[in-house]
Design a protein that fits this description.
90 residues; mainly alpha; single chain
Length: 90
Amino acid sequence: MRWVVSFVIASVGGLAILLLVIWALNGFHGLGLGLNGTIAVVLGVLFTGGLGVALMALIFYSDRSHADEEAYRAARDVGRRRKDGGADRP
């Protein structure tokens, strides 16, 4: 799980560096935003990127650790019992 946090921090850091380089090259001037608008756009991009990376990393973690297997098997068994006309409870 530690690698997930490290990966998210590294990804958000990379995005922050990229946005700083764009800002240094006067890349936000063409947007017609003031300082507050530019800060909002930068924070929005960082938050959205970090959230997307974190969710994808959790999907990979879940797949590798087989955390969803028990829930999948339980749901499959309930579906089989319903199909066979059995009760939902064991």
